Amino acid sequence: MKHIVLLNPKGGCGKTTIATHLAVYASTMGLRVALADHDKQQSSHDWLKIRPRSCADITAIAAYDGDALEGEYDVMIHDMPGAALSSQMSIASVCDKLLIPIMPSPIDIKAALRLWVTLSNIGWLDNPKMQIGVIANRVKANTKYLATFNSFLERMNIPQVANLRDTQNYIRSLDAGLSLFD
Questions:
Q1: What residues contact residue 44 under an 8 Å CB cut-off, 6+ apart?
Q2: Which of 7, 67, 74, 5 is nearest to 34 (CA)?
Q3: Least confident residue range of 13-17, 57-61, 131-135, 150-154
Q4: Among candidates 61, 49, 56, which has minimal Cα distance to 32?
Q5: HSE (side-chain half, CA atoms, 13 Å) at 69
Q6: CA-CA distance, 22 to 76, in Å (whole number)?
Q7: pTM of the full structure
Q8: 136 exposed, middle or buried (CB, 10 Å; 0-12, 13-18, 19+)?
């Protein structure tokens, strides 16, 4: 089983939005998918509760409530809470892919820098089994901070795996229990 972890100690950066969309994408590809919600706010679970039964199947795991991270799945998407990284250390042992959503703003860039230093200090950046990438979220093209953000990623040698534009389409689909892949 592959474990994909969405992590950023900063709240509001898009972890849940991206986790739910990735879960649907994997499910529509015919994979057996579990969405592990580690956040006591239960945003991923709230979304799964309103998901139409006719849509691609995704299993909910209430990791915030201690549910075991096991089962017969091809992929497990982990929606982590915005909180101190020390409380999320155990996830490193199962993580295959670490995705870090970041918005191109001064506050998010500073938070990302602190996160990157923390990941380096705890050895996650040296783990050859874990692939790490950044998802630029809520991007507005041709803005000063997008250029600043891209420069930051380049200087830090942080791989950017996706660039999601600022649109209400993600929010509208989530409000209906859907994703852009339904």
A1: 16, 19, 20, 35, 37, 60, 79
A2: 74
A3: 150-154
A4: 56
A5: 22
A6: 10
A7: 0.89
A8: buried
